[in-house]
Design brief:
- The protein is α+β, with helices and mostly antiparallel strands and 467 residues long.
- It folds into two domains: 235 residues; 97 residues, STM4215-like, CATH 3.30.2000.
- The chain contains twelve helices and 18 strands.
- The chain has a six-stranded mixed sheet. A five-stranded mixed sheet has the order 11-10-9-12-13, with helices on both faces. A four-stranded antiparallel sheet has the order 15-16-18-17.
- It is globular and about 85 Å long.
- The termini are far apart.
C-alpha cells in the first residue's frame, strides 16, 4: 500500500503538480504535469486566481483517493517576507500584526487587508520574521481542493519551507535556498529552529528576463552572494553554507560557488534516500515532516474525538490526585523545617549587619554606574555600530543604560541615530541586532525632524551586549 500526498507548485514562471509517493522502500517525487504562467498572471494579483484555474486541468490528481492531503508550495515572489525589528508592539497579537504589516509595506510589498499574516516566535528583544500569504491564492487553492476532493493540509512559502525541513532533521545553523528569482540566506543559533537572520537577494538584479532563467549559472549565484556580503558584512566569515536548489526549472549549477557546499553534509541520513538537490526532494521531506513550521499556513484542526476527550479527562484527574499527595508531603516537610529552624534560632544568637546610612545608600547607584562606564568596551561597541556603506545612517550618540540584567551577564546601550528614510532605520536596527558583541536590538521610538535640506527620521534603539 502506497501513501500519497498531492502537491501544487506555484513557481515564478511555471505551475507544476505531482505527488509524493511513499512505499516500503522510501518516498519519491512523481511529477505529473506543468504549464507556463502568462504575463497577466505574473503581472497582477487580481488576474492570478482566474488564470490558475484556467491553466490547470479539471482533475489533475485523477488517481488520488478521496481524503488524500493536498499541499501548496509558493515561490518567494508570491509571498511578502521580511524581518520585523523588535518593539513593544510585538508584545500584543493585534499590535504585532499591525507592526508586521507596516514593516512589509515599508519594504515595498503590496499587501491587501485579507492577506493572512504569520510571525515567527522569537525570544524577547529579537527581530521576528513575518510572512503574508496572499488572500487570492489561499481562496483559489481552497476552492480547488474542494473541487478535486482532496483536503487542503497546508501552504508553504519558498525558502522558509526549506529551512523548516532542514531544521526538523538537522542542527545546521545556516542555509541558502535558490529559488526562481532569489538567493535567500538564512541563519539561526546552533540547534534552534527560529530564524534570526533572513536575507533575500535578487538573482541578476531587478527586471530579470525569461531567457535568463535557462542561463542560470554558478557565476550569477556568486554575484548575488557578493551583493549580500556588502549589505551584511558579518556573513563574509561564514563558510560551508548548505545550498538547496528549489528552482522550478530544475537546472543544476554544477560546481557550487563561493562558500556554498552540497546539501548532503547537512541533510538527514534517514530521509528515505532523499539527496536534497532539487525541489522534489524538499517536497518529500515536507510531506513526511511531523511538526509544521510556525510560518506555514495550515488548516485549523477539527475537534478531538470523544474517546480522546475522555482520555484527557482521566489523565487530568490522575494528575490532580498526584498534586494533592505532593501538597500534603510538602506541608509536612514545611512543618518539620519550621521546627528545626526555630530550635536553631533559640540555640544560636543571630548577628545582624548594621544597616547602611542614608548617605551610603545614596552613593550606591552612582558607584554602580561609574563601574559600568569604566567596564564599557567603547572601541568594540563603536566598531559594531558603524553602519554598512549602503545604509544612510548617522549615529548621533551612544549612552550606557543604568539598569542591570537579572543574570548580571549582559548590559545595554542606548543609541540615537538619524536617517533620511524609515527603510534604512528598520534595516539598521536589524543590522545592530546581528552584530557582535550585541545579542539583540529593538526600536524604542522614532520621530521626523526638519533638517537643513530635507526631513530626517531620528530614532532611538536599545541594544544588549554580553559582558
Amino acid at each position: 500500500m502506497h501513501e500519497r500526498t498531492c502537491w501544487v507548485v506555484l513557481g515564478s514562471r511555471e505551475i507544476h503538480w505531482g505527488e509524493v509517493v511513499r512505499g516500503e522502500v522510501g518516498a519519491h517525487w512523481m511529477a505529473m504535469g506543468s504549464v507556463p504562467l502568462s504575463d497577466e498572471a505574473r503581472g497582477s494579483r487580481s488576474g492570478l486566481a482566474s488564470t490558475l484555474t484556467a491553466l490547470l486541468p479539471a482533475l489533475p490528481f485523477s488517481s488520488a483517493e478521496a481524503g488524500t492531503p493536498l499541499h501548496l508550495w509558493l515561490d518567494d515572489v508570491w509571498v511578502p517576507m521580511g524581518m520585523v525589528p523588535w518593539s513593544d508592539a510585538l508584545l500584543d497579537d493585534r499590535s504585532a500584526s499591525a507592526s508586521a504589516r507596516s514593516a512589509l509595506m515599508e519594504l515595498g510589498y503590496d499587501l491587501h487587508s485579507g492577506d493572512s499574516l504569520r510571525l515567527d516566535y522569537m525570544p524577547w528583544g529579537q527581530p521576528r520574521l513575518a510572512i503574508a500569504y496572499p488572500t487570492e491564492v489561499l481562496a483559489w487553492i481552497e476552492d480547488r481542493s474542494t473541487a478535486w476532493n482532496v483536503p487542503l493540509a497546508g501552504v508553504h512559502a519558498g525558502a522558509v519551507a526549506g529551512w523548516s525541513a532542514l531544521a526538523e532533521h538537522s542542527s545546521a545553523s545556516a542555509l541558502a535556498v535558490l529559488t526562481d528569482e532569489h538567493l535567500v540566506v538564512m541563519g539561526a543559533p546552533s540547534g534552534a529552529r527560529r530564524l534570526a537572520e533572513f536575507h533575500p537577494v535578487a538573482l541578476g538584479g531587478l527586471g530579470r528576463r525569461e531567457s535568463d532563467v535557462e542561463g542560470l549559472s554558478a557565476a550569477e549565484v556568486e554575484r548575488a552572494w557578493r551583493r549580500l556580503t556588502v549589505r551584511h558584512p558579518q556573513w563574509e566569515a561564514v563558510d560551508g553554507i548548505a545550498l538547496l536548489n528549489c528552482a522550478t526549472h530544475g537546472q543544476s549549477l554544477g560546481e557550487l560557488p563561493g562558500p556554498f557546499q552540497a546539501l548532503e553534509a547537512a541533510w538527514p541520513t534517514d530521509s528515505d534516500g532523499v539527496q536534497g538537490q532539487s525541489l522534489g526532494d524538499l517536497l518529500v521531506l515536507l510531506s513526511t515532516s511531523m511538526a509544521p513550521h510556525a510560518l506555514s499556513w495550515s488548516v485549523k484542526k477539527r475537534n478531538p474525538r470523544p474517546f480522546l476527550v475522555l482520555t484527557a479527562v482521566a489523565s487530568c484527574l490522575g494528575l490532580a490526585a498526584m498534586v494533592v499527595a505532593m501538597g500534603q508531603q510538602l506541608r509536612a516537610e514545611a512543618v518539620l523545617d519550621e521546627s528545626i529552624s526555630g530550635w536553631v534560632q533559640r540555640s544560636a544568637p543571630t548577628r545582624r549587619e548594621p544597616p547602611l546610612t542614608k548617605q551610603e545608600a545614596a552613593r550606591v547607584p552612582a558607584v554602580n554606574q561609574a563601574i559600568r562606564q569604566l567596564n564599557l568596551p567603547v572601541q568594540g561597541l563603536l566598531q559594531a555600530l558603524e553602519p554598512p556603506k549602503d545604509l544612510m545612517v548617522a549615529v548621533l550618540s551612544v549612552d550606557s543604560v543604568g539598569q542591570v540584567a537579572a543574570s548580571g551577564q549582559s548590559s545595554s546601550v542606548r543609541i540615537v541615530a538619524q536617517t533620511p528614510n524609515s527603510a534604512d532605520m528598520t534595516r539598521y536596527v536589524a543590522f545592530v541586532g546581528g552584530r557582535r558583541p550585541f545579542t539583540g536590538a529593538y526600536l524604542r521610538k522614532h520621530e521626523w525632524v526638519d533638517a537643513s535640506r530635507q526631513k530626517q527620521v531620528r530614532f532611538t534603539l536599545e541594544a544588549t551586549w554580553n559582558e
